[in-house]
Amino acid sequence: MQDGMTPPTGAAGRTPDEEKRAMRGFLFAFSAYFLWGLLPFYMKAVDHIPAIEVVAHRVLWSVPIAGVVLLALGRTADIAVAFRSPRTLVMAALTAAIITVNWGVYVWAIAVERTVETALGYYINPLVTVFLGALLLGEKLDRLQLVAVALAVVAVLVMTVAAGGLPWVSLALAFSFATYGYLRKTLPIGPSQGFFLEVLILSVPSLAYILWAETTGRGHFLADGGANVGILLIAGPVTAIPLILYAFGAKMLRISTIGIMQYVAPTMVALIAVFVFGEPFGIDRMVAFGLIGLALALYTWSALFRRRA
Fold first, then answer.
1. What per-residue string of b and e applies to 155-178 under the rule 16 or more CB within 10 Å gives b?
2. In which domain, by residue range, is 177 found?
3. Which residues make Cβ contacts (< 8 Å) with residue 151, sequence separation at least 6?
4. How many angstroms separate the Cα of 263 from the Cα of each of 6, 27, 37, 141?
5. How many other β-carbons are positioned within 10 Å of the β-carbon of residue 231?
6. What is residue 13's predicted lDDT score, i.e. its pLDDT?
7. Global pTM?
8. Which residues lie below 8 Å from residue 31, measured CB to CB, with a gap of 6+?
9. How many independent structural domains does the chain possess?
């Protein structure tokens, strides 16, 4: 090919257009993880409201935002197709139920000052994903991945012995989100369409619960002269915007890049828990987090090595 016809390349042999796409993807993904890292502040603001009610409002007020995104992308026809597929609806209902469990545990844990455990859960998550891949898909783990999973198990044992019981908050978040990610890939629609379908399905029981709570005097939306209206309406953007940003970022970036960036949010959450919320961070947690950090370093090195290979 003549010089005049050869497209200029940047880092890693990428063209300027590919560089711009990668940069946009990085900004989208980093914004998503940064917003997730700040999520504990919002959860603290609504910790006087039962977790189930907070989750119901997260679902309900996410529907219009997800709908606007679909309209902007011109992908509303995909939802009509999905409604004609019983299998798609069943799978979407299942993934919606699993992410609801994840949200509920997260909201509750921060309200009862167990934020550090939520951070540990999302640190463990990629290792649980690797484990599920080996267990359910028969994927073979290399030596570094086996060591990483073993270190994670040891970290959980350390927390179990120190606390006198399993760190179920961390495990529930890690396994629910890993299972959600595994099943979410089976939905034959895109990420933004899938999110809209999930919250649309969940909006029916969510609206029913909110109406029941308000009519029986148990709800907080209209209580105290409407003091909670604004903070509960924000639940929609707080939930939907990071997920949508992540969906766009993930489509533009390499898997290895996303794999490294996913540690941004739990790191921020852990720092906020200790230095802002004042949660205890004793020797047992230091050891557990140290083991998980080493496990993640091995896991990341293995992923990057496989990518280069």
1. bbebbbeeeeeebebbbbbbbbbb
2. 18-308
3. 291, 292, 294, 295, 298
4. 38, 15, 10, 21
5. 18
6. 55
7. 0.83
8. 242, 245, 249
9. 1
